[in-house]
Amino acid sequence: MSFPATTPPLARALAERNYVNPTPVQLAVLAEDAEGRDLLVSAQTGSGKTVAYGLAMAANMLGEAERFGPAAAPLALIVAPTRELALQVQRELAWLYQHAGARVISCVGGMDPRREQRELEAGAHIVVGTPGRLCDHLRRGRLDISELKAVVLDEADEMLNLGFREDLEFILETTPETRRTLLFSATFPRGIVALAKQYQDDAFRIEVEGDEGGHADIEYRAIRIAPDDAEHAVVNLLRFYESPSAIVFCNTREAVRHLQAALLERGFSVVALSGELTQNERTMALQSLRDGRSRVCVATDVAARGIDLANLDLVIHAELPNDPEVMQHRSGRTGRAGRKGVSVLLVSPARRRRAEMLLKLAGIEAEWGAAPQAEEIRKLDQERMLQDSVLTEESTAEDLALAQALLAERSPEDIAAALVRLYRARLPSPEDILDPGEDRGRSRPDRAARERPSRGEERAPAPRTKGGKPSRHGMGEPSVWFRAAIGRRKNAEARWLLPMICRRGGIDKQDIGAIKISDTTTEFEIAARVADSFTANIRRPDKEDTIRIEPLAAAPSAAARPDKPPRRKADEGSYHPLDRDEPRDRADDKPRGKPPRDHQPKSFREPAFAKKKKHRDKSSPGGQAFRSSNPHAKAPGGKKPKAKRRG
Fold first, then answer.
1. Among positive and negative, which fits the CA dihedral 49, 54, 57, 58?
2. β pairing state of 150-153 and 180-185
3. Do 528 and 477 touch, CB atoms closer than 8 A?
């Protein structure tokens, strides 16, 4: 399949770039039904949409001519959500229209507006920019749009998400009514449909299936990790795949800074991209990735939009994205222009259900597995070393002479061992990672089958609380008891202890039995089948808290675990996470909020004399006067105070 008939200068540019087979979105916008009409196109990142609208608007700008005339007022305006995407679009259109004599300039935030003003005054055929900067030039009268033939909104859904709706409306209302409007969006949410109805004229709607344009060349993997192993898993994945370029996504700037520092410390060549960087810093970071000085980029979602790296083969989601669209935009950085790519999601046991939902909503089948282990990586290192160019390149006479000199001084084994050490010294060391196992993803029917008694087996009726609901202070399976060094005196409550235990131990809520909170400690029950991995996880230092957790030598005595929980006292309390959604601690089932006043630690109680008037003693060293509201009360010295005269 070849490109439809295009203007000769554009066809020449495509041939020079080896563009032979058009993508589905390129075929759709060049079809006869779409010719000359407003377009509403749904296409994923990496589907070739920049070239698609570049070809589609050529007829509007050039007409029958093959070259542009002198640059004056722009003929086309492209609006993109981020600086990186706008600059990428400028580069794409520059090579596409190079033989047509087009002048393509950019107007983006973070760049010198005076330089952009000079370029606009010199004239341009195509202007690419971000909404805020374009609006600024329009309001100041620097951008003349009276001759516009086409307007393109690239990734319009993302611009709406970033709050650019008013800017887009201002741009579209200012441009001539005769212009052609091409709107490209990954999805068609309500805001995009409303924008199209208001500012497009009988738009031709094109939807490209996700499998064809979104993730056809991307292999998705979901990696099980313990809650504190995300950083180690990133290290092992980077070492396992050894991609020429890789992007690791985090959700916050703080996480980007932390992960970049951790990877630099381990010896990776890494740069960071986040919203706090200046435009110059972002440009330098991207350039170091393009020329190979850096191999890894740690970035947030917004900062990484528009990044197009030729050798990007690996995307790692160190933190799960917020929705399926963000996941596809992240993953769309790889698997471009016919190259294969890998997108890896790191999933802790507590986040597995969310990861499965994201993949399901995106229509993606991911392969689940464990993170690469250190032994696997060392084996791969051995294979890669044997194929390294150092060993396969042809040796020069000088190389052979030095080799003979070395053999005269050292044995071949010593020289080979030295070569191995040199090779390993330039590689970051892999990490030992614990696999939390498959049992975290067990389905509810499996758990129900486990709790259901077999034929002929009778189970004692569950004890009842005062409210009449069954108590679950017994797990119904073998369990192990643990103790946490925090109690009610430090405001310990089950509502935050439960997620802390799950995070520290890498387990689910269903693996926890009873929780008993006393004054200074908290004892809780863990299913025996996960006790070993839980014990291994809690021994690791935690960045968020320093609460010591240790196994108990034996389970609490029967007196401490009655079948029917007693009325709560000041020094004991129990809770089971499956009793109900909201933690409760009383037999009358009242919701637990702030502990009752008589149950608060003494340090938090209000002194008994706090609300009484203070009395001062004349006989005290400070010589303060004694005062009382009782006129007949005696002072500490034994004298009766004088009564006040009336009248």
1. negative
2. parallel
3. yes
Say which residues have a Cβ less than 8 Å from residue 573's Cβ, sequence separation at least 6.
488, 516, 517, 518, 585
Contact (Cβ atoms closer than 8 angstroms) between residue 176 and residue 146: yes
How far apart, in Å, are the Cα atoms of 209 and each of 43, 88, 444, 564? 8, 24, 34, 59
pLDDT in tens, 92-129: 999 999 999 999 999 998 788 899 999 999 999 999 99
Q: Spell out the residues 6+ positions from residue 395 whose beta carbon is closer than 8 angstroms to its own.
A: 403
Question: Within a domain: residue 428?
Answer: no
Q: What CATH number is attached to the domain comprising 291?
A: 3.40.50.300
pLDDT tens, residue by residue, 375-418: 999 889 888 888 877 777 788 888 888 888 888 888 888 888 88
Three-class SS of 34-82: HCCCCEEEECCCCCCHHHHHHHHCHHHHHCCCCCCCCCECCCEEEECCC
Q: Residue 219: what residue type?
A: E
Last residue of a domain, one of 149, 181, 212: 212
**What pLDDT is recorded for position 543?**
63
- In the chain, % of residues over pLDDT 90: 29
Nearest-angstrom CA–CA distance, 607 and 596: 16
In a 13 Å sphere around the CA of 448, the CA atoms on its Cβ side amount to 3
Cα–Cα nearest to 272, from 317, 303, 239, 293: 303
The count of other CB atoms within 10 Å of the CB of residue 162 is: 17
pTM of the model: 0.51
Residue pair 28/206 in contact by the 8 Å Cβ criterion: yes
